Amino acid sequence: MANLYLTEQNSILRKTGDRLIVEKDGQVLLDVQCHKIDSVLIFGNVQFTTQAVHELFEHGIEMAILTRHGRLIGQITSPTTKNITLRIQQFRKYDDELFRLAVARAIVAGKIANCLQLLRTFSYNHPEIDFQTETDALKTKLTTIAASVQVEQLLGIEGDAARSYFQAFGKMLLSGEFTFPGRRKRPPPDPVNALLSLSYTMIFNEISSLLDGLGFDPYLGYFHKIDYGRASLAADLMEEFRAPVADQFVLRLVNNRIFSPDDFQTNPTGGGVAFKREALKRFFAEYENSLNREFTHAETKENTTLRKCFRGQAERMARTIQDDIPYVPFRTG
What CATH number does the domain located at 84-323 have? Predict the structure, then answer.
């Protein structure tokens, strides 16, 4: 199954039988059975009927509402999949400082290790590019994790590692059409940052929906601080997927010239840069192909997909919380 992306402005999502249809000006643009959908993502001015939402709830399908340019506003979710036992344990574990520290260490170590792996893989194919300074910095940060005694220290380590990593990321962009002045957001000032921001948003939304469906409270995390309106646990789990999923995906889109600067425009309402409409549709198609492409899992040696790995890590976090099993992050090598 896959996500359903609705981007046609002024269209409307309706229900007919056990199917969802998207209409505009009396014309049916899409007709799909509910059992083929994992979630619905609505971008901008797309309307939906109460009956359509009821049908989504009947099938346990979540709906995410985003701005036209991909900023997540909120989610509509069914209450039928809540696991109160897991939520109670999740809150209890938050008060266990040693537990929080152990989980946070694993998350940061997984993120930095995956950043290093992406650099190693890219360097193998492009030995002419020098990543030594950035690689050394990441390795140094990785060795300091075990000695950290507070989550706040880990936040600092992660932030320093991210700065070194994005210096290397700029070197991996081989298309001369794009420039990358460093990681910038809210709003992204250039196409590469727009690609990164939207990719992160898509992953964050998927993981947040998974956590909610499994019975977690997505807003209570162990590495990221509690913040009003932020799904901190989803932010926690997303860290290990940034480099191997989003960043690698963006590199492929840019280096293979799947997109060009002409596919982007200045956002007239919020500033920054965003996709043009037709390019946004192509982005979603590429995103779906990326998440559903099979590969061999580095740990289990089984065929899997990145989308399955999202769920696997969420389930692993549930076991960590309920059974005191150490959390093992997703690793690519």
Answer: 1.20.120.920
